[in-house]
Design a protein that fits this description.
This protein is of the alpha+beta class. The protein has five domains: about 25 residues, no CATH class; about 100 residues; about 110 residues, no CATH class; about 110 residues; about 140 residues, Transposase IS200-like (Alpha-Beta Plaits). A hairpin with a 4-residue loop joins strand 4 and strand 5. The chain is elongated.
Length: about 550
């Protein structure tokens, strides 16, 4: 109020600048609230979440490839190279963090990714050393059995049978201990290998065995290579299999928390936007009524001036009437009639002033009541919307339950009438049943329609066709055609992931026991596969 009154003492230019500045501030705040009220991109969240899952699978596959390369005698390093290349390609994609992640979580994710891919760089260097040392170890391990077969096949022309038998027995014992040493951690084997190596060398020196008679130097050389290289390979294997910090699971939890916070932040800004525009509306009405009242003030001043003039005229007349009591009755009647006339005019003006005052008092009370009504509307708006939505959901749910059984029979008959020349029916028809965890009754008719659209889009992306969709509060039944080359297990996991994200966005504030999308669906599902060309069915359950 004081601010509005002080505007009168400002010049016209200053008032114009003040009005323009206020309008700019109001417009800026309104644009900010509207911008923050936009929905969070669920497609961006799903895409980034899938990249994290892919990185987690690559890390697990990396450990499997390392173990295979370490303990298989004949193995290729191509899977190891491809795995590291895929992890490196995901680095650039994971750096593109969605916009809905707040500042603190964004910094945490960026720091974690930097540490993770720095660890990946170290693993790339370790893998190169691992390949070179492991190749040297495997080369010696493959050579010793070959050397044994060569010794068995050749004749001992330059050696006596006793010396040849002693060398052969020592060689076989050495090879046996070396092979055990490759897959064992027994320290006693190291001592045995060194003893047999020394024993073989002593026999060779004592009997002056020639190279062409028995390859003693090669045997000792390869034995030393195995003895020295195996600990290095084991150490490199341990370093490569050590988990990187932070783990991908921690990053996934931080990202899911950011998504939940973004959804909650959008809801808060929508409520604040509603309050902000209600305040602007109430303030606009108040200023308009205030301006109208100010326009009526000159008329109030004129009425007050007329009352003062009449009072000034009446005062001398009243005094004169008391002094001139001797005036005759005719003059007295004229005087009283004049007094009555002025009195009526005075009463009329006073009544007019009273009515005007009561009018503006009524207006002020109406303004106060309007402000109170707007505040009460703000408090009851959310409750009213929730009641309306609940009634609509209950009505549509009853209709859906009545139509469910008839629609199921229609779908089964429709499956038999699909034309065999269709491109999709040259593969198979799958019927998938998904059950909520602990048989929670989560699905409602609006959610059925939303899930039907989500499943249809997901199947179209995988070159599949949705045939039918049925749902109940705790069960979803989906029929679709798929090409022969599709992997149904991965397709089912993708469908569960997409549906979990959709339901988690809807029910995360209503059910306290749902902490993440993985808490919605049961791990058990029922899958029926019908081959359209061979007229057979396969049933899979997990």
């Amino acid at each position: 109020m004081r601010t509005i009154k002080s505007l009168k003492f400002l010049s016209s230019i200053e008032r114009q600048w003040l009005i323009i500045s206020s309008a700019i501030v109001i417009l800026t705040i309104s644009i900010f609230f509207i911008g923050q009220s936009f929905s969070v991109s669920r497609a961006g969240y799903q895409q980034y979440y899938d990249r994290m899952l892919e990185l987690k699978e690559l890390e697990a596959d990396f450990d499997r490839v390392i173990l295979t390369s370490r303990y298989e005698l004949f193995s290729s390093y191509d899977p190891l190279v491809k795995n590291l290349a895929k992890q490196r390609s995901l680095e650039q994609e994971l750096k593109k963090i969605p916009r809905f992640v707040n500042f603190n979580n964004r910094k945490t994710i960026e720091k974690s990714l930097a540490e993770k891919f720095e660890s990946l760089k170290e693993k790339e260097e370790l893998s190169e050393r691992f390949k070179s040392r492991n190749a040297l170890l495997k080369n010696s391990l493959r050579y010793l059995p070959l050397l044994t077969s060569q010794v068995n096949s050749q004749d001992s022309k330059g050696l006596t049978p006793e010396i040849f038998s002693s060398l052969k027995a020592t060689l076989e014992g050495l090879i046996r201990n070396l092979l055990l040493y490759n897959i064992s951690v027994d320290r006693e084997l190291t001592t045995n290998i060194k003893t047999l190596t020394t024993q073989l060398l002593d026999i060779d020196i004592k009997n002056k065995v020639k190279k062409e008679d028995f390859p003693t130097e090669k045997v000792i050389s390869h034995a030393n290579i195995i003895l020295n290289t195996k600990p290095q390979v084991e150490n490199l294997t341990t370093q490569l299999l050590s988990p990187s910090e932070p783990s991908t699971e921690d990053l996934k939890k931080i990202f899911q928390t950011s998504y939940s916070q973004a959804l909650q932040r959008v809801k808060i800004y929508r409520i604040l936007s509603f309050i902000w525009f209600l305040v602007i509306l109430a303030l606009s009405n108040y200023l308009w009524l205030k301006r109208s009242r100010n326009r009526q003030e000159p008329s109030f001043a004129r009425i007050k001036q007329q009352i003062e003039q009449i009072s000034a005229e009446l005062s001398p007349l009243i005094e004169k009437s008391h002094r001139s009591s001797h005036i005759n009755s005719v003059s007295e009647n004229c005087l009283f009639s004049r007094l009555e006339t002025h009195k009526k005019e005075l009463d009329k003006l006073a009544h007019q002033v009273q009515r005007t005052s009561e009018y503006w008092q009524t207006k002020e009370s109406q303004i106060q009541q309007q402000i109170q009504d707007l505040q009460s509307q703000l408090e009851t708006a959310k409750q009213h919307i929730e009641k309306t939505v609940t009634k609509a959901k209950e009505t549509k749910l009853n209709q859906q339950i009545l139509q469910l059984s008839a629609t199921l029979e229609h779908v089964r008959s429709q499956k038999q009438t699909i034309e065999p020349e269709s491109e999709l029916t040259e593969g198979s028809i799958a019927h998938l049943s998904l059950l909520t965890k602990q048989r929670r009754q989560l699905m409602t008719p609006p959610m059925w329609e939303r899930l039907e659209t989500v499943f249809g889009n997901a199947l179209n992306e995988r070159k599949c066709q949705q045939l039918d969709f049925q749902s109940s509060p705790e069960l979803i039944q989906l029929s679709f055609c798929h090409p022969p080359q599709i992997q149904l297990s991965r397709l089912v996991l993708h469908l569960k992931s997409v549906a979990s994200t959709c339901l988690y966005e809807e029910f995360q504030d209503q059910l306290q026991d749902i902490k993440e999308p993985g808490d919605i669906w049961s791990e058990t599902y029922f899958l029926t596969i019908s081959d359209a060309s061979a007229n057979r069915e396969e049933v899979q359950a997990q």
